[in-house]
């Protein structure tokens, strides 16, 4: 069943954290709310979880109403059957791995075959042998796995993730990104994931919902968001952007082709700086009245060199916002 968000709004002391919002979260998909800090991602997630009361609107799972301001329905968190994974993991420090994972099952009286169900979750996140450890005896990645196992052991209809990887160091974060996406897909979970990190959003999601200042700007696949952003903010926020006309005609760096003695419609610029990225060079170009552009090349270009470029018409994306 899809989660349907209709006309949802929330203010804190006259600060509108979330403007009127409509959104469908599709069952079995990995959907990500992506936007800069303070844009209302956590507020939206907490309202879905039942941890924050909306001012207006309706939340439904299929036909099942979880919240409705008009009908005065507000189902408490523990009866929404959603799993939650937070940035700080929020594990119980005085409980073992086993007891942390078993906690929700015990609290809701689902103690039938408890040992087997918890053990399956432990195996799934590869924590065999660590069942009797306490959270402080685990690495960050292991704690994250416990938090994940605890969230999914109840077989939730939806799992909510709020920046779950941001407390981990860069290398572990890359690893956990792949691991987490794999687990979510293997179990066939419906995931709603919050992050401000565009790389996380692009690499993990089936669908990305881009937010800014309490509003949804665009929803689409990672490819749609990158190739056809509907708002200049999205083009800037995700990947690098060059503008042919300010905020209107977008060219991505990888679409710039180098030419020599190009035709009259070739673009001309001067190499301003070069940075080595390992697999290629990132080149800043002084384009005169067009400002600074970013381009890529497999070879180093000397600074100050005059260069010519060709850009295919179909690679120029018009933003009609
Ligand atoms: P994000 O998760 O995208 O960083 P938040 O949802 O946490 O953004 O916050 C959105 C806006 O609402 C921010 O301006 C924030 O300061 C404000 N806000 C969030 N929670 C509260 C609260 N409990 N009281 C007052 N203001 C809040
Ligand atoms: Mg947040």
Automatic annotation (TrEMBL):
Organism (species): Paenibacillus baimaensis
Domain ABC transporter: 3-238
Superkingdom, taxonomy of origin: Bacteria
Keyword Repeat appears in the UniProt entry: no
Protein's name according to its UniProt entry: ABC transporter ATP-binding protein
PANTHER family xrefs: SPERMIDINE/PUTRESCINE IMPORT ATP-BINDING PROTEIN POTA, SPERMIDINE_PUTRESCINE IMPORT ATP-BINDING PROTEIN POTA
Keyword field: ATP-binding, Nucleotide-binding, Transport
Entry-linked PROSITE patterns: ABC_TRANSPORTER_1, ABC_TRANSPORTER_2
Alphabetical list of Pfam families matching this protein: ABC_tran, TOBE_2
Listed GO MF terms: ATP binding
InterPro entries per record: AAA+_ATPase, ABC_SmlMolc_Importer, ABC_transporter-like_ATP-bd, ABC_transporter-like_CS, Mo/tungstate-bd_C_term_dom, P-loop_NTPase, Transp-assoc_OB_typ2
Keyword Nucleotide-binding: yes
Gene3D superfamilies: P-loop containing nucleotide triphosphate hydrolases
């Amino acid at each position: 069943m899809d989660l349907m968000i209709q006309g949802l709004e929330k203010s804190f002391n006259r600060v509108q954290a979330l403007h009127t919002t409509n959104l469908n979260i599709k069952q079995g998909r990995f959907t990500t709310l992506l936007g800069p800090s303070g844009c209302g991602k956590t507020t939206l997630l907490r309202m879905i979880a039942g941890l924050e009361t909306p001012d207006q609107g309706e939340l439904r799972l299929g036909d099942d109403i979880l919240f409705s301001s008009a009908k005065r329905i507000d189902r408490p968190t523990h009866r929404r059957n959603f799993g939650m994974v937070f940035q700080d993991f929020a594990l119980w420090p005085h409980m073992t791995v086993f007891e942390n994972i078993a906690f929700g099952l015990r609290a809701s009286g689902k103690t039938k075959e408890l040992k087997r169900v918890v053990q399956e979750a432990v195996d799934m996140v590869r924590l065999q042998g660590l069942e009797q450890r306490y959270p402080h005896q685990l690495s960050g990645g292991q704690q994250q796995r416990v938090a994940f196992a605890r969230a999914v052991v109840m077989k939730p209809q939806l799992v909510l993730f709020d920046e779950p990887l941001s407390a981990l160091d860069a290398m572990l974060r890359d690893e956990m990104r792949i691991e987490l996406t794999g687990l979510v897909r293997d179990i066939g979970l419906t995931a709603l994931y919050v992050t401000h990190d565009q790389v996380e959003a692009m690499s993990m999601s089936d669908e990305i919902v881009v937010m800014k200042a309490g509003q949804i700007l665009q929803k689409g696949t990672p490819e749609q968001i990158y190739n056809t952003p509907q708002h200049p903010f999205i083009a800037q926020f995700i990947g690098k952007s060059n503008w042919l006309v300010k905020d209107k005609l977008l060219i991505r760096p990888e679409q710039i082709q180098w030419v020599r003695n190009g035709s009259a419609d070739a673009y001309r610029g001067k190499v301003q700086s070069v940075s080595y990225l390992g697999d290629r060079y990132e080149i800043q170009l002084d384009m005169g009245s067009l400002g600074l552009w970013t381009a890529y090349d497999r070879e180093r270009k000397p600074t100050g060199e005059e260069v010519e470029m060709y850009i295919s018409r179909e690679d120029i994306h018009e933003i009609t916002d």
